[in-house]
């Protein structure tokens, strides 16, 4: 009887751990919208910065791609529920599209693909691991997704050298700008108490 009850309680806790609460939806939406506003600024900065990098080595402009990848990683690290990375990245892309950018509705395709890249990593760890290593992997996967999407949509028929440089640069950018910075952002937010209703916040404060 006791063993059966314990098993039932464990199953219930597992079920609750993947169920979205109202606060999860609200905070994920805040992350997505705020990230979308950052995307809008990054949209304006991309062309002049890209113009500096491209002449150095074609494909190197992908080092800037991480500025559009952090929403999914950040959302996944904070919410820790299935779909969080995809939701926040896609919502950020929606905001960027609605405000306006030169890529129009194709931004939504990018948000979907990049969000899936990060989401896959969290899913592979069964939404149970959210340390620095997982954050970096999620950023790398989002960067790889960005590279594949961009090479198909914007650079079809590119040579091997360009494809290689663009892909490596995208992954590195995802690791640093999306993975590492998002991990630090979560720790910083947790120390302020802003994430006290989330496991991410409780874990960080427990270590202090």
* Model regions low in confidence, pLDDT < 50 over at least 5 residues: 1-14
Please give the CATH architecture.
Answer: Orthogonal Bundle
Radius of gyration from the alpha-carbon trace, in angstroms: 18 Å
What is the domain total for the residues? Answer: 1
Supply the helix-strand structural class. mainly alpha
> What's the CATH topology name?
Arp2/3 complex 21 kDa subunit ARPC3
Shape: globular
Largest sheet: none
Task: Please give the share of residues in helix.
Answer: over 70%
CATH class: Mainly Alpha
Total DSSP E strands: 0
Distance between the termini: 40 Å
Strand content range: under 5%
Mean pLDDT equals: 92
Write the H/E string, N to C: HHHHHHHH
Query: Number of helical segments?
Result: 8
InterPro entries: ABC_thiamin-permease_prd (IPR017195)
Keywords: Membrane, Transmembrane, Transmembrane helix
Transmembrane segments: 22-42, 62-79, 134-155, 161-186
Structure in words:
The chain is an all-alpha fold. The chain has one domain: Arp2/3 complex 21 kDa subunit ARPC3, CATH 1.10.1760. Helix content is 75%, strand content 0%. The chain contains eight helices and no strands. The protein has helices at 2-17, 22-53, 70-79, 84-99, 106-124, 132-153, 160-192, 199-207. α2 packs across α4 (84-99), α3 (70-79) packs across α5 and α6 (132-153) runs antiparallel to α7 (160-192). The longest helix has 33 residues, at 160-192. It is globular. The protein starts with a helix and ends with a helix. Mean pLDDT is 92; it is low at 1-14.
């Amino acid at each position: 009887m006791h063993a059966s009850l314990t098993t039932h309680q464990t199953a219930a806790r597992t079920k609750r751990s993947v169920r979205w609460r109202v606060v999860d939806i609200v905070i994920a939406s805040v992350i997505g919208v705020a990230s979308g506003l950052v995307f809008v600024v990054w949209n304006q900065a991309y062309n002049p910065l890209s113009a500096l990098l491209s002449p150095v080595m074609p494909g190197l402009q992908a080092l800037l791609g991480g500025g559009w990848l952090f929403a999914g990683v950040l959302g996944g690290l904070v919410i820790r529920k299935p779909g969080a990375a995809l939701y926040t990245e896609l919502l950020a892309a929606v905001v960027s599209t609605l405000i306006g950018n030169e890529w129009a509705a194709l931004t939504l395709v990018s948000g979907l693909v990049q969000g899936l890249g990060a989401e896959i990593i969290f899913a592979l760890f069964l939404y149970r691991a959210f340390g620095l290593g997982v954050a970096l992997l999620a950023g790398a996967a989002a960067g790889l997704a960005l590279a594949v999407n961009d090479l198909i949509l914007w650079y079809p028929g590119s040579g091997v050298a360009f494809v290689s440089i663009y892909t490596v640069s995208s992954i590195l950018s995802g690791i640093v700008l999306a993975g590492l910075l998002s991990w630090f952002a979560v720790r910083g937010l947790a120390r302020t108490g802003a994430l006290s209703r989330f496991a991410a916040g409780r874990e960080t404060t427990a270590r202090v």
